[in-house]
Amino acid sequence: MRFHATIEGTDKAEDPMWYVVTIGDDVEEYDGTAAQYGRDVLENWITDQVAFADGDAAPTVDEYGNPYLRVVVRFSDEPDAHDDRIAIVGSDELDTPPAELDAVDAARDAKLYAKYLDRLADDQLEEALRAARETGHGANELARRVDGAISRPVALGMMRR
User: Is residue 23 pLDDT above 60, yes or no?
Assistant: First the structure.
């Protein structure tokens, strides 16, 4: 799958107010789950920070184990397009989970990815319906044309928006 990561930080781990530390450059191809991608991104970033600070980097968790850092993983690098945060991994969750939980994560990713693609297709279909309607095609004709993909009331609603 293709994922995008944003690393966030907080100064108060017990009652966090998250701020963006760094945003990934591009959407990346990754063979594992979104959570594993998040763990890898965060571990790599922490390792880089430790190396940059000559081994004297800031702590990643507070004395109670609450994270100072987290990574937000999305399918898209456009966070305002949809609320498509599919995984949030804190610096307290860097250990790889057991295989059975990883299987749950993979199934969850597949379901969320299907929903994400459906939202993108809805946006594309709505835009196409409005464009066809504006050039003079009838609403009933267009509703029949998209039958099976969406219901008639949804199609008519898309054309009205």
Answer: yes
